[in-house]
Automatic annotation (TrEMBL):
Protein name stated in the entry: SWIB/MDM2 domain-containing protein
Organism per entry: Rozella allomycis (strain CSF55)
Top-level division of the source organism's lineage: Eukaryota
Organism phylogeny: Eukaryota, Fungi, Fungi incertae sedis, Cryptomycota, Cryptomycota incertae sedis
Domain DM2: 146-223
Pfam families membership: SWIB
PROSITE patterns according to UniProt: SWIB_MDM2 (PS51925)
Matches recorded under CDD domains: SWIB_like
Length: 344
C-alpha cells in the first residue's frame, strides 16, 4: 500500500494521489474474484486518509509548539579515557604477575599470583589484596609476554654468533649463517657439519647433522628472567613508573595469516575453472550445431532431387565459412572410422 510522505513545511500543498490501481473493465471481466481486489483497494484508501490526518496533526504540533515551563536539574560530569584502538589491555602483554611479601603470621615469604590462561579476558588492570604490616616491603614480579617468544643465549653460543637475546628462529638463522660463512659443511655430504674449534666448544661434538641443530641450539636457550620491582607499604601511597621493553605482534598479522591460508587453498578454484572450461566447450559445440542446422534449414538439399544445386559448393568461398571449418574435424574422423570398419 502506498502512503503519502509527510512534508517538512506545514503550508506546502500535499500532492494528490492518482488512483490508477484499478483494473480496466475489459481486464476485470476475465479475472475471477476481482471483487476481493476492489475491497482491498477500498481498505487501502481508508488507511491512507487516516495516515494523512495524523501527519497533519504531527506537523501542527511540530511547527506550532505550545510549551509549558518546567524546572530541570542537570547533573554534569566529565571523564577522560584513552581510545581503545590506541592502547592495549595491560594483561595482553603479561604471562603472569606475582607479589612476594612476608606473611605477618609465619614471617615467611608468600606470593599472590596471577597466571594468564588460554581463555582469559584481557583487562586494563587488577587488584591484589593481602593483610600485611602497615610498614613492609614486597616485590612485584612481572613475566612479559613477547611475541614471538625470546630467549637468552648461553655465554658460549652468544660469543660465537654475537647474539644475547633473540627468538629461536633468529638464533637458528645466525648459526646457519656462521656455518655457511666458515664453510663447515662436509664436502661429500652437505647434511653433515664439521665443527670448528668455536662450535666444538659450544656443542661439545666434532661434527653434527643439520637435523640436530634445533635440538642442540635449544640446550643453549633459557627463558628471559621476570622483572622484579620493589614495593613499599606505608601510610603514604606508593607510586612508581617502570618502562619495560616488550615485543608485541601487530594484530593485523593474524588477518594476513588467515588470508594467506585461504589463498593456498586453490583446489576449489581449479575445479571451478575446469567446469567453466567444459561449459565453454559444450557451448561452442552447441553454437556450431545451431549454425549448421540454421544454414541447412535455409537451403536444404532433399534426397532424390533431380537437379541438385552444385554451383554454390563449387565456389571457394563456400568452404571458408565458419561452420564448414568447425565440422571438418568431425567429417574427417567419421571418414577415418568408416575406413577402419571396412578394413575389418
Amino acid at each position: 500500500m502506498q502512503q503519502p510522505q509527510a512534508t517538512s513545511v506545514p503550508n506546502r500543498k500535499h500532492k494528490k494521489r492518482t488512483f490508477d490501481i484499478k483494473f480496466p473493465e475489459q481486464l476485470a471481466k476475465i479475472i475471477p474474484d476481482i471483487s476481493l481486489y476492489d475491497r482491498l483497494v477500498a481498505a487501502e484508501q481508508k488507511i491512507d486518509s487516516i495516515i494523512m490526518r495524523k501527519n497533519i496533526e504531527i506537523q501542527d504540533a511540530a511547527f506550532q509548539p505550545k510549551g509549558s515551563p518546567q524546572m530541570i536539574t542537570f547533573d554534569i560530569s566529565t571523564d577522560v579515557s584513552v581510545q581503545g584502538w590506541s592502547s592495549r589491555k595491560i594483561t595482553s602483554v603479561l604471562k603472569g604477575v606475582a607479589v612476594v611479601y612476608k606473611d605477618p603470621n609465619t614471617l615467611q615469604e608468600s606470593a599472590v599470583q596471577w597466571v594468564r590462561t588460554t581463555n582469559v579476558q584481557d583487562s586494563d588492570g587488577f587488584v591484589m589484596r593481602r593483610n600485611t604490616p602497615m610498614s613492609s616491603n614486597a616485590r612485584l614480579i612481572l613475566k612479559i609476554e613477547n611475541t614471538p617468544e625470546r630467549f637468552r643465549l648461553s655465554p658460549a653460543l652468544s660469543k660465537a654468533i654475537g647474539l644475547t637475546i633473540d627468538t629461536q628462529s633468529n638464533v637458528l638463522f645466525a648459526v646457519w649463517s656462521y656455518i655457511k660463512a666458515n664453510r663447515l659443511q662436509d664436502v661429500h655430504d652437505k647434511k653433515i657439519i664439521i665443527n670448528d674449534d668455536v662450535f666444538i666448544e659450544v656443542f661439545k661434538v666434532p661434527k653434527m647433522s643439520f637435523s640436530m641443530l634445533p635440538e642442540l641450539i635449544q640446550q643453549h636457550l633459557t627463558p628471559l628472567e621476570p622483572i622484579a620491582i620493589p614495593l613499599e607499604f606505608s601510610e603514604n601511597q606508593f607510586n612508581t613508573k617502570v618502562e619495560v621493553l616488550a615485543f608485541i605482534q601487530d594484530p593485523i598479522i593474524n588477518d594476513y595469516r588467515e588470508y594467506a591460508t585461504k589463498a593456498l587453498q586453490i583446489k576449489d578454484t581449479i575445479a571451478l575453472d575446469e567446469k567453466i572450461s567444459q561449459i565453454l566447450q559444450v557451448s561452442h559445440k552447441s553454437k556450431v550445431k545451431r549454425e549448421f542446422m540454421e544454414g541447412f534449414s535455409q537451403d536444404p538439399t532433399v534426397l532424390g532431387e533431380i537437379t541438385p544445386e552444385f554451383s554454390e559448393a563449387e565456389r571457394s568461398e563456400f568452404y571458408e565459412q565458419d561452420w564448414v571449418r568447425d565440422l571438418l574435424p568431425y567429417y574427417t574422423m567419421e571418414r577415418a572410422n568408416s575406413s577402419l570398419r571396412n578394413s575389418r
